[in-house]
Design brief:
9 helices, alpha+beta, cytoplasm, 11 strands, protein biosynthesis, 49% helix, methylation
Length: 372
């Protein structure tokens, strides 16, 4: 017989759901859905396919968000009915089902709580992620490719659309750098906690003496620019170079002189694009990522100014935010949140939800401390 105090558990579930409903502002969410439904019903919506895609995607996301919240209320009601039935009939099998359902409801409520923490200025945006090999030679390049696969698998597990826009291959193995988009609402808010320096410790497969090697890779996450952001870049501040795409070739890599390298002269920011079919498309894609990086740079500068005025001298993210240790033991550990997992293979195969959830909660606590 279960010793769980179900009455107390149900009270806690309803209290948590009520807090989520308050933060989510159900009335405002419904109003946004109503407005998007009107826009989606416009007869000329698909005259502009890009805009139509944004409207329908935003509508689908907000409908799903509302459905998850309202559906959870019904699920808690059903759970309470299950408890009443089990107690009336004295069937221990039903209580075993109840314990399983309770764990599932708590997990879903935790996911909803995480969504309420994605309230930063650009958190609702899609994301552009760049991975760069750091110190560690060929092992670092191989690590960069491992991270690329990890994030693409993570997105695939969640049904998120991704698009690799640039890859620069290292000479022996792996990648010097790679850039890809995650085309999903709140991708930036979710994945921005992955930004920072990642460290890999393992026996190097490239060392004929089988020595242990430590290598590093940097992950950059920026919000995808939108037309409403109005980030204007004067032509005289941009340097455009055209070159032939690199890599092993194949259908997904264009091997004509259509790749574009765009440099923002005042800041030195460089963006390369090579995976579109034409120079014009690569240039447009590069400009959009350049605008996104300048937008984030502006945000970081404003945040730095606020911290300077407040006298805040605490470090925020640090250079080494996560370690992936494959030898002499198996462990992936986040150095900010202390979240750790012993199954390194699963993590590198995209099972990083626990790290991301812990990172989002950690970031929220940091913001609260800054406000205090």
């Amino acid at each position: 017989m279960s010793s769980t105090d179900y009455a107390a558990e149900i009270r806690d579930l309803r209290h948590t759901l009520h807090e989520i409903e308050e933060v989510s502002d159900i009335e405002q969410l419904q109003a946004e859905i109503d407005q998007l439904e009107k826009e989606a019903a416009a007869p000329d919506l698909w005259d502009n396919p890009d805009e139509a895609q944004k409207v329908t995607s935003a509508l689908s996301h907000k409908q799903a968000e509302l459905g998850r919240i309202t559906g959870m209320g019904a699920r808690i009601d059903d759970f309470e009915t299950l408890i009443e039935l089990a107690e009336e009939e004295g069937e221990p099998e039903l209580l075993e089902d109840a314990d399983s359902e309770l764990a599932k409801i708590k997990e879903k409520l935790s996911e909803l709580e995480i969504m309420t923490l994605l309230n930063g200025e650009y958190d609702a945006r899609e994301a552009v992620i760049t991975i760069r090999a750091g110190a560690g030679g060929v092992d670092a390049a191989d690590f960069a490719e491992m991270l690329l696969r990890m994030y693409l698998r993570y997105a695939e597990r969640r049904g998120w659309k991704t698009k690799v826009t640039d890859t620069s291959y290292a000479e022996e193995a792996g990648l010097k750098s790679a850039t890809f988009e995650v085309n999903e609402p709140y991708a930036f808010g979710t994945l921005s906690v992955e930004a920072g320096t990642h460290r890999l410790v393992r026996i190097s497969p490239f060392d004929n003496q089988g020595r242990r090697q430590t290598s590093f890779a940097a992950v950059e996450v920026i919000p995808l620019i939108e037309t409403t952001d109005h980030i204007e870049i004067p032509e005289n501040e941009l340097k455009i170079d055209v070159f032939r795409s690199s890599g092993p070739g194949g259908q997904s890599v264009n091997t004509t002189d259509s790749a574009v390298r765009m440099t923002h002269i005042p800041t030195g920011i460089v963006v390369s694009m090579q995976n579109e079919k034409s120079q014009i498309q690569n240039r447009a894609a590069a400009l959009r990522v350049m605008q996104s990086r300048l937008l984030l740079l502006k945000q970081e500068q404003e945040a730095a100014e606020k911290k300077a005025l407040a006298g805040d001298v605490k470090a925020s993210w640090g250079d080494q935010m996560r370690s992936y240790v494959l030898h002499p033991y198996q462990m992936v550990k986040d150095l900010r949140t202390n979240h750790e997992v012993g199954n390194t293979g699963s993590v590198l195969d995209g099972d990083i939800d626990g790290f991301i959830d812990a990172g989002i909660r950690w970031r929220a606590s940091q913001r609260n401390q800054d406000e205090d």
